Amino acid sequence: MNILVMAAGALGGYVGSAISKQHNVMFIARNTHLQKIQENGLIVKSITSGDHICDAIAYERPPDNYKADMIIYCVKSYHNLKAIPIIKDSVTDSTTILTLQNGIGSGEFLASHFGNNKVILGAAYIDVNLLEYGVIKEHGGDCKIVFGAYGKNNEYHTKKVESILSQTEIKHHLSEKITIDIWEKLIFIAGLSGMTCITNSSFEEVLNYPKTKKLTELLISEVYEVAMASGIPLKKDTVARTMKYFMDFKSELTSSMHQDLLNGNPLEVDSINGAVGKLGKTHKVPTPINDTISSSLSLISNTRQIKFEKLNKEM
């Protein structure tokens, strides 16, 4: 099958490299990262899959006649509008689109362009980061993808995702309650990303300090209350379970949004903590901690986004 990875950052690069052992994978990348992949292949250092060099082809945009059987959608949410023109001509009536974006809203966004039935929602629990351009590292652990249908009548697409992932080392689970899974991941990532970014600290430092540990618990409690008000039937012990997991693995947990903060990139805060605040207002649920984090980080993110767009126009 033809698998298009949009785009080949840390997560997309790892998932695409795992799939490329059995299928034809095309990576979409830009600038120096693209150049390095084209020159050397994508170098993967992985506990789960073993170290290897993925020699899948890479382009800035697909060739005009390229059609994808499946698209792995890993674009940062602030690049959504730029991603659609790149992939739209590669989508056919039978193309499956698996979104692994953080936060909420990705399914709705993609369905508005390509229809409900093509879109499969996914929550990726894969600890991976970009070591340098053209080199990614996967750190082991659970390394799984939970996925499920966004719309109705798309068993064809869920079976395709299941079949392709079954040929990789990535654990996977087809969920009948994917919306709940997405919200549980949102609670997790809002706490981890929000607190590491706003304090510019490791998660271990955040949780070892009593004041920020308590703030983390209050933050994820806000997300839980917004989920319940939105009609998402989360279990009553969700916050307690999440905090226990945080404490058990605090020295190992890292945030891609915190990495973006450190690397000078824009941040996905609008689709994570910002989305919590927006829905909180809709349902009249107070979200002061998420609002503060969203407002503070959006200043940094917007400034960087303007800078990036200016640089791209000059290139």
Structure in words:
The chain is α/β, with parallel strands linked by helices. It has 2 domains: about 1-175, NAD(P)-binding Rossmann-like Domain (Rossmann fold), CATH 3.40.50; about 180-315, N-(1-d-carboxylethyl)-l-norvaline Dehydrogenase, domain 2 (Orthogonal Bundle). It has helices at about 10-20, 30-40, 80-85, 105-115, 155-165, 180-200, 205-210, 210-230, 240-250, 255-265, 275-280, 290-315, and strands at about 1-5, 25-30, 40-45, 50-55, 55-60, 70-75, 95-100, 120-125, 130, 135-140, 145-150, 170-175. The protein has an 8-stranded mixed β-sheet, sandwiched between helices. A 4-stranded mixed β-sheet has the order 4-3-10-9. Strand 11 (about 145-150), helix 5 and strand 12 form a beta-alpha-beta unit. The radius of gyration is 19 Å and the shape is globular. The chain starts with a strand and ends with a helix. The model has no long low-confidence stretch (mean pLDDT about 95).
